[in-house]
Amino acid sequence: MDILITGIVLGGTYALIAMGLNLQYGVARIMNLANGEMLVAGGFAAFWLYTGAQVSPILAIFLVAPVTFVLNWLIYKIMLRPLVKRAKTRGQLEADSILATFGLAFVLVGLMIWAFGGDYFSYSYLSRPVEIFGSNFGLNRVVAFICAVVICGLLYLWLNHSRAGMAIRAISVSPSSSGLVGIDVPRLSAIAFALGGAVTAMGGALISTFLTLDASTGVLFTMKALIIVIMGGVGDVRGTIIAALILGIGETMVASFIDPGLTLAAAYLLFILILLFRPEGLFGRRLT
Amino acid sequence: MRFSGDDWRHIAIAVVLIAIAALLPFGGNAYYLSLGVNIAMYTALATSWALFSGPTHYISLATAAFFGIGTYVTGIGIETTPYPMLLVLAALAGAAVAALVGLATLRLSGIYFVIFTLGLAEMVRQIVTWWQNQAGSKGTYVLTNLTEADIYWQLLGLCAIVWATGWLIGRSRLGFALRIIGDDETVASHSGINTALVKVALFMVSGSVAAVVGAMIAPRYVYIEPASAFTPMLSFQVVIMALLGGTGRLWGPLVGVIPFTLLWEVISSSFPNQTTLLLGVCFLIIVYLLPKGFVGLLQKIRMRASGESARDEALA
Questions:
Q1: CATH code for the part of the protein at B5-315
Q2: Which ipTM did the prediction report?
Q3: In the structure, what pLDDT confidence band is assigned to residue A288 with cuts at 50, 70 and 90?
């Protein structure tokens, strides 16, 4: 029961990060390997605001979100839009964007090492126990989970019940057809990419309240987010959430039964199972 | 397989150049020799990377995983097993891991492969660290009588083998199949090529070379631990060098490795704290400005020159 709840709480924050990546990959068609670095940047920002100005990480989210939104929008406009224009096929765009964002990931890691040094950083926020079903859990984890649920919920409502959200979902189905029905594909792709980055950075700010991060841990989170997106199916919000919960529970099980250092191995195990049995995602339809 | 006169000439030139390169340790300059070891190491890694990723356009980010596995094969076996045997074991281990990765991902689209390789080094590192903790040690000592010159010659020999392999593959049915897959995978599978098998086979070649390089370099490190054996920077450097040179030709990666190794020397000695940042910037410059590397640039210049001379002739 302990493991289940810890896993679900962890999975909730993972869901948020994966939603961010899903927006970037599913809509803007950018396979963003620098996603984890954006997460760590969000975490750094929260850490810096908390230790420097005593701003609570929950409030910091409201500052992190617009800043990273603008940052990611600029990244898309300056770096990635030329690639989208240059690419003749989706495969070509994938190869180009993988290389470009891979380079970007190293630039971001380099910038963060430059600004904050290569040390681990953590701070103590709301680290007192809270009792759920007779067992104790860190309050910071629970608060992070609740925030993640709220943000995910808002995102879900926005995507399903607003005009812009509907247009974004249309692009994820088919960019060329969306253009035909009067959707401004370049503009909304940029917004989706920026929003995805902002959501991931918010996830990073939440995660930093209970996990220790350092400048180079981004790739771990990129990996996990990628696995969740593939498991849940590209562009599928429901699948993403369930996949994130599965990964959260799986990781917690490995961490408590075998060794906390093997969490990535657990993620890989899930990844291999998915690749072998359901490469189209949990709820995806097999392409013919 | 029959060799034409041209082929013999190319082979002769390559042998002479490699023989000249093999004279380096006799120069007696330790700094140049260590630079030479770096260049030979990255050449073997980048060329074997390009053997697979060049024609297929499947970007492998897992060089460090194979390299680290090779390093650990030497580290674990050096006390009990003769050294040449270890190189063979490293090659087999690298090929086996590559086969597993390939079988899991290469049947599907390329994106799964890239993602899988992205975290592979980190995952193997976690497992090795865990296993070492179980055994109660932090790292392993590799003590041998091998000198820097011995390592250099070994790596040079490996480069020669990689080039020969690449050259032979390029002339074989396998190489032909690979080029078709790179151009259009659907066409390839429709003309009866078992695309998954071809890709897995080539990836195994690439993986085993990287593992052997790791096994050869291990004596140079003396003390190996997971953090140094599986450094993600290595995968990154190999990709950047191969792309800088260009993957279209067998000698392409070499053209990228030499200037980049020199540049890296400058960067790591003048800006030791900003290496990651500067490498990332170099990488972006290459991806955006030199998408086909030096090889592509050379071809463009040559094409423009021949285009102009053709126009001059037409005018005259």
A1: 1.10.3470
A2: 0.80
A3: very low
